[in-house]
Amino acid sequence: MSCRTVGLAYSITKDGYVGFQLRQSTCVKCSFWNECVGTTTPSGRKISVSPYYDYIRERREKQKSEAFRKEMSVRAQIEGTISEGTRFHGLRHARYPVSSAIRCNSI
Question: Has this prediction a pTM greater than 0.70?
Answer without folding.
Answer: no
